[in-house]
Amino acid sequence: MTEKQIHLPIVFHFHQPVDQKGSIYENVYQKSYMPLIENIFHFKAIKFTLHFTGNLLKWFLENKPDFIDKLKVMAKRGQIEIIGGGYYEPIFAIIPYRDRIAQMKKLSDLIKKEFGLDVKGAWLSERVWEPNYPSFLNDAGLRYVIVDDNHFRSTGITEEETFYSYITEDEGKTLRVFSINEVLRYLIPWKPTYMSIEYLKNTADEKGDRCVVFISDAEKMGAWPTTHQICYVEGCGHEEGDNGKPFIPAFFDQIINNNWIKSITLSEYMEKYPAKSLIYLPTATYDKMEEWVLPTKERKTFQKIRKQIKDDPEKHDEYLFLKGGFWRHFLVKYPESNNMHKKMLHVRDKLIHFENNLDKVVGQESRNKANNLIKDAWTEIFKSQCNDCYWHGLFGGVYLQFLRFSVYTHLINSEIIIDSLNKKFLSLENKYISVIPLDFNKDSRMDIIIESDLLNMYLNPSDGGTIFEIDYKPKSYNLLNTLTRWPEAYHDSEEIDINDKDKIMVDRFKRNMLRIRFYHNNDPFKAIEADQYREYGSFVDGEFSVIRNEKNGMSAVIELEQKGSVIVPGSNETHPCSILKKIHVEENKIKIIIKSQFEKIPEKEDLVQKIITHLNLGIDLPFFFNGDPDKFQWESNQLLFLNESKNDLLKPFQYTGSYFKAHDLSYNLNLEYLLQSETKADTELIEILKFPIVAYAFTDEGYKTIYQGINVIAQFKLRKELEIEIEIKIY
Hints:
By secondary structure, the chain is α+β, with helices and mostly antiparallel strands. The protein folds into four domains: 6-284, Alpha-Beta Barrel (7-stranded beta/alpha barrel), CATH 3.20.110.20; 286-327, no CATH class; 334-429; 489-730, Beta-galactosidase, Chain A, domain 5 (Distorted Sandwich). Helix content is 32%, strand content 26%. The strands form six sheets. The protein has an eight-stranded antiparallel β-sheet with strand order 17-18-19-20-28-25-24-22. A five-stranded antiparallel β-sheet has the order 11-12-13-14-15. The longest helix has 27 residues, at 335-361. The radius of gyration is 29 Å and the shape is globular. The mean pLDDT is 94.
């Protein structure tokens, strides 16, 4: 009788986001990367397939020569295969074809150069798959890809049928597809090794052409909580398990000792066995991601349904067809993600525009001189495509403000390079300003972008006539890299300590600049900070009309108007009111005039009087600092701080005054607000409210509060006609 056997391709994925903190690189290296590779190096008879994000591989090359030497030895002896993918690990679905090919070629070329290996397989960031992938992966010279077993479920394929490879195609271009095994993913390294071996034994058969693909983040093997102890120190701690032997060497020993387990790389398996059949996979990612991407209300419902079906053995067949959301919806769920993505598309369009113009007006010699700068500009764009901050699940994702800042920094860097290219090769002016109306957010509504050599300002007339991005180019710094405190499904979790419940604040409106609020003058500071006050105006997120849009010399002016209404306190009546915003941008200054005027209706003068007696007008002036919070400073020439603790930028504070200045010492960046009403000396009309924007998020480190910026509210006492001047200076 033929002995049963099973092939076991083992894949480890090494990843860190672009601009990850150096201390984290080193910490994860010591806890996970180094001991994992040392164990792999020791077990010469076991084959492995490895994936490294390009920026992490570059870090190893520059900082860990011994680590690289071990990889080179293993590559030479045929023990490892290294697969490719996007150099900076983008989600391929949201980057253009040109960028997909360039990122994959960049990583494949590095692997070939350093290790002499031809790259045949592709790693998909977060296992996001769309049906058009086979064509561009084939164009990049890749022959196979690894996807989640979740991708196969809705095709009707059973768990047993995932123990093979399949082939798929797009535009006639084919690609082999391997399925990641879910059972092993949850067993390793949490359970004793015998449980994984028993599972493999149950999947083995006499024909011997099956494979069970085990894949794991390398960080999981040592850098996750408790896993360093489990993997390299004392094992799972189960008496019936590995007798205290660390999991990784114990598991590798099991593979060596059970010769019916056939160690193999994915390329070797593909060469040895044909695909089981043709398959067409639907748009998919892993099951948890399909849950996280759903809108919060629907996510709560989906969680309940999924748990009920998964826990009921009689509903196993129904569970196979239970599908969650579509990864791209993260760009809708988190407008801040959409902003970064559309900024990336906008900047690359500018670079392509330069390339096209350059080809028309210069010869090959000038083109050659420009190529290095063009390459640098593309590299900055590719870095901005790193997927980590475009979504949120167990990982902090979009809530990690320093990763969002990284995206903007690289995109602004690219814009600076484009400015220098335009000046040097197309003879454009060094100093410039332009006004660009376009549907930036791709929501069918017109936005306005003001760009200059010093500042970019992005304005959304349809969302309250607000400013949602201000880039200060000398520092490659987006001062509106704030994040709205979005409602999350886990905010209802019973796991949250009752003492932490008051830390959960949720915003009704995106944290943009110049959002105008009407609230009762009895509303406490805390209600305004938590966005739990009653909104009386229609202007907070209403649509403003653009009535002026022009540039004059080195300045630009935008005027917006909304004819709306304000609710009369103590009644259901409203009274007509108009608000005009005039925004003037010149060099490093933004000057704003806001005029509010209640319509004169003689028989309703008493209603207007009620409004101006009982309501305040507040203007949001949020900003984001990226440096060390301990080095944030603020001041007002109308305050004398005898106690330094009162000078804490992140501490809520309210004062009567018209001047506010903040300083990010880490970047040597200053931001000033100067406020005036039409009666310049009437300073008691103006209050300044300052509080941190802090989101309560669930991350791989548990529940935590994460700083997302500062909101300053300029608060004015209402009048029948009110004119406000705001000057913003950045330097």
